[in-house]
Write a structure and sequence with these properties.
Rossmann fold; 4-stranded antiparallel beta sheet; 9 helices; elongated
Length: 298
């Protein structure tokens, strides 16, 4: 079986398209006013996988779905919306769960790491929920699906630059920005941190200890005076060492969930600007070390 997420306006055309490709329509779920989820049967798993790959290549939000049993129950658990307090929620676009009453909903299509279920991603989103107040310029390092940048925008940030060394991740982040009508606020690029000249009010990096240590100087350099940096993908025993590498930023928060920890560090230097000086100039492009940036999970 395959599942295709589409809009109410595009439902009829997508159903016709799937039938033309040999899929048998089984049901249409309405998880929200705007979202429609089509369930369709395909004669065997191999053909289903080929059809999904073909649709995804065209930008269609299509995935394979178990037919039943324990695998289907796990599917339902793993596609349940993730709610962060009273400000934000995250859900796969193809989820069959009702989300009509969710606040601050961010929907994600296929591709890229980061769905909101992994502890490291949750820790980073919780930091954003707690600290983003509106108008911030955000840098998302190792963006994966773009989830952190999109959550920051939903919380009121003004703009996001999302960087990753994987072209698939950059493409996923751009697709997800379009899904959430945020493509005019999010730039996703393969640019290199060493080539950026701009400062950011918020920098987030869910890239594990090795990546944080390797990029420590660049991460710190991009945090504006009065801004903050959140890092995740580290173990509790690695926290103090990571804090040392990120000097002179000052640790202001540490969170731990099982084997994973995250840190928030602030740039306590006061921000000094003149009427002719912008605190966050535009940034250039370059290349990141392909061995450094990789999301730790979803």
């Amino acid at each position: 079986m395959i599942v295709v997420a589409t809009s109410a306006d595009e439902l009829a055309g997508m159903c016709e398209r799937l039938e033309g490709l040999g899929a048998g329509l089984l049901d249409v779920v309405e998880p929200s006013d705007a979202r429609r989820v089509i369930l369709a049967a395909v004669d065997d798993e191999r053909n289903a996988a080929n059809l999904v790959a073909s649709l995804q290549a065209e930008g269609v939000m299509a995935v394979m779905r178990p037919d039943g049993g324990a695998a289907l129950q796990a599917w339902f658990r793993n596609t349940r919306p993730v709610v962060f307090g009273k400000r934000l929620s995250v859900c796969a676009a193809w989820s069959e769960h009702d989300r009509s009453g969710l606040v601050g909903l961010v929907e994600l299509g296929p591709g890229g790491f980061g769905s909101g279920h992994h502890p490291t991603t949750r820790q980073m989103i919780e930091a954003l929920v707690k600290r983003v107040s509106g108008g911030e310029r955000v840098l998302d390092v190792g963006c994966g699906s773009g989830i952190l940048g999109l959550c920051a925008l939903k919380l009121g940030a003004a703009s996001v630059v999302a960087v990753d060394v994987k072209p698939d991740a950059v493409e996923a982040a751009l697709r997800n920005a379009r899904i959430n009508a945020m493509d005019d606020q999010l730039e996703a690029t393969l640019a290199g941190l060493g080539e950026f000249d701009g400062l950011f009010d918020v920098v987030v990096a869910n890239i594990a200890r090795a990546g944080i240590v390797e990029l420590a100087r660049e991460l710190v350099a991009h945090v504006s005076p009065g801004g903050w940096l959140a890092v995740a993908g580290i173990s509790p025993s690695q926290c103090s060492q990571v804090v040392d590498f990120l000097h002179p930023l000052v640790e202001v928060e540490r969170a731990t969930a099982g084997e994973w920890s995250s840190l928030v560090l602030a740039n306590s230097e006061p921000q000094i600007t003149t009427p002719d000086q912008e605190p966050s100039p535009e940034c250039a492009r370059g290349d990141l070390n392909p061995h450094i940036l990789s999301d730790t999970g979803t």
